[in-house]
Amino acid sequence: QAPDKKTMFSVNADGSVETAGGITSSADAVINPGSMNVYQSSTAATVWNGGWNDGSGRNITSTIGSGGSATFAGTILSNSWIQSDRDDPDDSAFYGTLNGVEKVNIKAGGSATFTGNVVCDLSGVSSCGLTTNGGIFSSNITETSAVTLFRGVSGTNSGIPSYEKFKVDGTGSATFAGKVTSAETVSGDSDDT
Description:
Elements: E1 9-11, E2 17-19, E3 46-53, E4 58-65, E5 70-72, E6 92-98, E7 101-107, E8 112-114, E9 148-157, E10 160-169, E11 174-176
Antiparallel strand pairs: 1-2, 3-4, 4-5, 6-7, 7-8, 9-10, 10-11
């Protein structure tokens, strides 16, 4: 009795190829002209895996999901901009984590949150501007002199700005290393001079 026949692959008259399984190639696959289209039955599937294999096994370093997500193990380089277009101003446009913990969050509305210091230029440029149409706001839940709300430094030690010139602490007091000049009368509620 002849064995049951099962079609494993077919080459159609229009040049298309149908296979019952995956395609493995030891050389480059070139499509010119044309495009590669991969469709899955859900948005949680994978349409692309890329990586390397030195003979000991496959190592996946790039993945594209059918829902539009992408994961890369290395650096993403672009000679143009990278754009994030969101529907809600509270949606994150850029989100950075360290070991799974949020450290940087820039939202579509223009607000930004950083858990560490924001350093503006250490390369030798003499100034760095911060321009705002509103106010600059510093907030801390602790109301003590140990909390610094604003601090200004200048002068360098081993190339790092190091010498404090003014400071405003959590109690509202301020210290200045130089002369304080005002065009108006300066008044206060304390008897201290």
